[in-house]
Amino acid sequence: MRKIAIIGGTGDQGLGLAMRFVQAGLPVCIGSRDETKARMAVDAIKEKFPQASVTGMGNTQAVKDNDIIILSVPYKFMVDTLKGIKEYLTPEKTLVSLCVPLASNVGGRPTQIIQPWEGSAAEQAQGLVPEGVSIVGSFHNVCAARLQDLDNTVDDDVVVCCNDKEKRKEIMELASRVDGMRGIDGGPLCNARIVESITALIIGMNIRYKMPKGIGIRFTYLYDI
Q: Looking at residue 101, what is its pLDDT?
């Protein structure tokens, strides 16, 4: 597995993913606009995993030094974050977008989606990165609370969408390294429109069923993966 950086790794979902990857024995870099916050996140991880291979640094250095770049920031910060790192993105790197265009980013409800002109946040991101860089849409539907509940497995399927089949396969394999998680081939990037919208559905169901740690999704009868 290539080196992983989580941009926005100080947030709940990014930190949860970092913990799960570290738990799986993978080296992780926490990227943040604030290096002090990145180092604080590293300290939090090392409290739970003292031998972890985890570092913290600014976003640009994190992108320079690593191969799989996971963009885990609120949708309202996605464009500015990409503008800040785009000159360091090269075709051999894999850029993963977790961003979901929830209406709460513009003062609405988190149970609703706003649709970017391009169709999805992932497709919007694809239009902002240098030519030759492929965006992968994935990890949208995994609840942060479940990720940080390290005493239990993450009982989730993770749908992976990308136009580049090799990068899609790489992130499917990464997801499957987490105990209880399974990477699912979601096809081309345009399918991220559907996957991102599931997040709003899940948030609404969490509210209605009073699930503070959140529910997950599984695709049944899918065995040959």
A: 98
